Amino acid sequence: MLRLTYGPWGETLGELADAARAAEAAGADAVWVPELHRSAPVSAAAVAQATSTARVGTAIALAFPRSPMVTALEALDLDEIAGGRFVLGLGSGVQKLNVDWHHVDWDKPVTHLRETVRNIRAFWAGCTTGEPIDLDGEREPMRIRGYRRPYPVLRTDIPIHLAAMGPALTRLAGEIADGWISHELTSPAFLRERILPEIEAGIARGGRTRADVEVVTSSCCSVDADPALARRRSAGMVGFYATVRTYADFFDFHGLAADQQKVIDAFSGATAGELAGHVSDAMVDALTLSGTRDQVAERIAAYDGVADTIKLTPPTHGLSAAEIRVAQKEVIAMIAELTGGAR
Fold first, then answer.
1. Which of 7, 45, 127, 133 has its CA 20 to 30 A from that of 73?
2. Are residues 40 and 94 in the same domain?
């Protein structure tokens, strides 16, 4: 059965925590926090303290600007705060973000992420023993001596999920990770035809089974009694992704290459709200869950049997805080209806 999870929004950390608490009460199996305008670990700490039963995950934390040891320490502390409910979601980010924003070399991102995951798990396994950790690597060698963590470790097997859309990183998620996470616009057809075959190839390469990998699809979700209003709320999110030229194959897969080009042509310092006016209803309908509650529930059901878990997030791009609050309230109310408010 498809697990319903949620990505809460808050203008403050307090509001973020309140939204996570409301989503948990509505029956969300997990709450996920991103990393762009806030630190993912700090947001996860706020959410973990506000909840008690739902899993708490980063979707995603940037893997490369932090050392694997720092990431591993943050994850151990977050898992302690969450009482064993933490999921470490990691992503490579794009080249420009790493090189220009964080001054991180972009060479061999697949190797870099593979070695990062290896090092994190090795640190978790050995950090309390005092034994040396000595790992070779092209991107992330790790040599630790004279270190022993004096605090207890709740779990040495915290789940690690990897965000990926390209084939190489998606195969890596299938090979070594406990889960895979998509970006916010992944349709059931794209998931079935482009993503799952790569995950399954990675699973085979790693000698694993499909049950070893949680497939988490993310969806921008906008619910309103007026379906046209619901669509327009989501248009800014679609416009944001459409400006990324490396997603050309993704939009072409959905027959939206010309629609994407119109957004790109309009993109010259335009805000998300301005870009929304250049996003067609066809793009919104194909790539988001937008409409009345019944329409959105029907579209969520289309992921059942394809993904294991769906992460619903309210639209945010180009919207005021007041508009996002309305959208968030509607999504959480729909989760409660679909789950019966199970938690």
1. 7
2. yes
